[in-house]
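#onboarding

Welcome to the new folks! Below is a worked example of what a typical request in this channel looks like: someone posts a single protein sequence, and someone else replies with the predicted structure as tokens. Don't worry about understanding the tokens yet, we'll cover that in week two.

Example request:
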Amino acid sequence: MIPPLTQQDGEEKRPMARNSTYTLVMSPGQRLEVSAPDVGTAIAVAREALKYLQGTSYHLAIAAADSLEQEQVDDEAWGGHYVLTCLLCGLAHPQSSGKSDLVAMQEHHMEVHGFKAEDLRLALRVNLPGDREHFIWALAPAQANVLGLKQLCYLRAVKKSVLSIKPAAQPQDTANYTTLVQKSSFDSTPRLQEVLVTGQDEYAWYGYHRGDAREEEPLVWPRGEWELSGE
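Example response:
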């Protein structure tokens, strides 16, 4: 179960702002799912969240969650065994008498980092496709600016035994594809993807990678990370 980030002791429940889930292709082997109100916001948040969902940061977070989980296996009061870590100051697994970890962490963000209840209510979620056990929560750029924050991502929620995501094999097809090139990579090697483009705008190309099921929502290739081959 995804930890609900709108719960406040004594606060009247209000409906969440309407978000859409965008699947962003950040590199040939890296996709992120972002729940956000628009694709521009989703891309901004994904670019920052990526560093928390791969590499050393990711593996250290999993190891820390595994360790805490063993100690808390019988404790049902802290939101389904999610280990919460503040990405602004490093506070992990907060505790407050009579309150869940979730409420304790929300109070921490409000008291220490200046969040308002509305900021928590409008929080955006980032995760790897299919991974329901590791989430990054973030604010839209405008909200982060109001709070004077230097980053958008503010909370990590992780369970023990995060699943490895392995894309399922899909049949080949004969559709006409557009070749997109990753604009930069750590080893300067051009990286290409063939994309069935179904739409585009100032933010991105939208469509399907070769072999993807087209009944799903289209993927998003952000401009800045990708360009048309031959440009």
